[in-house]
Amino acid sequence: MGQSLIGIFGGTFNPVHVGHVRAAIEVAEALGLAAVEFVPAARPPHKSGEPVLDFELRLALCRLAVEEVPGFSVNSMEADRPGPSYTCDTLAALGRERPGQEFCFVMGMADLCNLPAWKNGLGLGRLAHLAVHSRDGLGLDAFTAFVAANSREMEASPTGDPACWDLPAGRRLSFVPIARLDVSASDVRERWRHGRRIHGLVPDAVRRELENRDDAIAALWGRRIRT
User: Fold this and answer.
1) In a 3-state reduction of DSSP, which class is residue 148?
2) Which residue ranges of the chain lie beneath pLDDT 70?
3) How far apart are CA 120 and CA 154, in angstroms?
């Protein structure tokens, strides 16, 4: 992929953790991305039953998480968009706002498998390049099986390399194997509620900010159990 390609890493980031940052770094290095923008969802459509931190706090935590990573930044565009934060709408808006710029949407294998449930999920390749990283033990075999089963809807064509498929308008769908880090936002929240240490699971700057915002966070995640 070209050096001018910008990675778009969307998510709820409730909270952002080291797995997010490491995955974005490895995908950027593997594909030669010029930069990566974290795009927190203001109103995540698939998290209706989950206690989600305020958007501004999640935005601030993401900024702290990537502040020392060269080429990484946080895009707050979702703050000004009404309605649920659908990825297809985000990518379409980026295309309108920055014509001529090529984007690569980065997702994990779990997100790829859930694309049929997303709004226009299987059509995201018409809006951007797609990069999928391994997650939760799901690797190239799962990637290939999913894309082969949904190739018509995704308009994906094999290239001879099972980790790379052609998409419309000269775009690519790529699989990137990354180091396995079994860290999840739900596990971080659970440890937080039970007063357990989250050192090493989130960047230190993020951990310190969570501790500083303890009262505000308790209203959503629950009061921490002090031991």
Assistant:
1) helix
2) 1-3, 47-49, 226-227
3) 10
| Secondary structure E strands in the chain | 6-11, 35-40, 72-74, 103-108, 129-133, 157-158, 164-166, 172-176
Alpha-carbon distance of 207 to 217, in angstroms, equals 12
Does pTM top 0.85 for this prediction? yes
The b-or-e profile of 149-182 (16+ CB within 10 A means b, else e) is: ebeeebbbeeeeeebebebeeebbbbbbebeeee
The sheet with strand 6-11 has its strands ordered as 72-74, 35-40, 6-11, 103-108, 129-133, 172-176, 164-166, 157-158
pLDDT at 226: 66
- Identity of residue 117: A
Q: What is the pLDDT of residues 120-132, one digit of tens each?
A: 999 999 999 999 9
Cα distances (angstroms) measured from residue 195 to each of 16, 50, 113, 136, 200: 18, 20, 33, 25, 15
* Segment 1-36, tens digit of pLDDT: 555 999 999 999 999 999 999 999 999 999 999 999
Tell me the domains of the chain and their CATH numbers.
6-176 (3.40.50.620), 185-221 (no CATH)
Tokens standing for residue 85? 């934060």
Alpha carbon separation from 207 to 66, 90, 192 (Å, rounded): 13, 28, 10
Amino acid 60: pLDDT: 97
Rounded CA-CA distance 177/190 in Å is 28
